[in-house]
Amino acid sequence: MILVCGIPSESPLRMVIARLEDMHADFVLLNQRESLNCDLWFEIDNGEIRGQLLISGHAYDLRDFASVYPRLMDDRLLPELAGEPADSPLRARCRAFHDTLLRWMEISPACVINRCAPMATNSSKPYQAQLITKFGFRVPETLITNDPDRVRAFRAEHRRVIYKSISAVRSIVKELEDKDEERLELIRWCPIQFQAYVEGVNLRVHTIGGEVFATAIESDATDYRYAGRDGGEPAGLRPVDISDGLADRCLRLTASLGLEFAGIDLKITPDGKVYCFEVNPSPAFSYYEGMTGQPISAAVVRRLAGAAAEQEDPLLALSC
């Protein structure tokens, strides 16, 4: 059986649910917005994890879940808790449920796409960049500093420089311009990541269950995700084939980070050099699938269903 967790109206989750329904898969939906009507307990007995998940009064044996696809928002921001004080009993109950759910997913023998621990590398872009280089990918020249003079020297050396978040919190990538000079003193209170601008074509590569989906992005914007926000031309996306060698590197990078599913952001320079900016462990693939028709959600479901089939008969599927 498959467990799907999150907000069912959120695009990636909605696509996965639709594919599961298309194939009449045996799955359970844990709607995060109904968390206050859910409960979960588990125990470890002689190396076996036993427990139950209760959703609106219906009990499910945790041992029956062979695969899990979680896309959970911060439970503190759930609309159902709006207006509740920080010390509210409802907030405490909701937090305890999510904490137990995440702890179970970390140790469950189920195939989880993805567990929290491996996803943590994305919480520090500089740390993740060090891991990325081990697989033959280049990373842009980077400066992390709270010293405005070092930023000025870095910009003088590289001429074009971008800045973005160091953490997993989404930020808009922007180019450092002359008008930003007057604001540079502000970084003394918070170190910022600056990188040399890399010319070339953006490439998003999704890897899941041994499958690779590469998407080329055509845009003049520094951050193509927001290309049309300020009246510019929206980014153009198209599926592309990449070499077996590059596909293999992407798969090995994903596996080395302990991930089942990843969105890898690359840039291919005019002279063929491959730069990797980051590995997203919870990719919003619906944007790419919606624009190109690439069956990424179907590949996610194949991985989930493969693990479920293996639980019923190990000869039917590859090992998780």
Structure keywords:
four-stranded parallel β-sheet; D-amino Acid Aminotransferase, Chain A, domain 1; 28% helix; single chain; alpha+beta; Rossmann fold; 3 domains; 320 residues; five-stranded antiparallel β-sheet
Give an overview of the whole structure:
This protein is an alpha+beta fold and 320 residues long. It has three domains: 2-114 and 308-312, Rossmann fold, CATH 3.40.50; 116-140 and 198-281, D-amino Acid Aminotransferase, Chain A, domain 1 (2-Layer Sandwich), CATH 3.30.470.20; 142-154 and 161-195, no CATH class. It is 28% helix and 28% strand. The chain is built from eight helices and 16 strands. A hairpin with a 2-residue loop joins strand 4 and strand 5. The two termini are 14 Å apart.
Q: Strands of the biggest beta sheet: in what spatial order? A: 14-13-12-15-16
The domain tally reads 3
CATH fold-level name of the largest domain:
Rossmann fold
Structural class, from secondary structure content?
alpha+beta
The average pLDDT value, as a whole number, equals: 92
Gyration radius, in Å: 22 Å
Low-confidence stretches: none
Identify the CATH architecture of the largest domain. 3-Layer(aba) Sandwich
| SSE order | EHEEEEEHEHHEHEEEEEEHEEHH
CATH class identity of the largest domain: Alpha Beta
**Helix proportion range:** 25-40%
Biggest pleated sheet: 5 strands, antiparallel
Query: What's the total count of β strands?
Result: 16
How many angstroms separate the termini? 14 Å
Principal-axes geometry comes out as: globular
Strand portion: 25-35%
How many helices? The count is 8
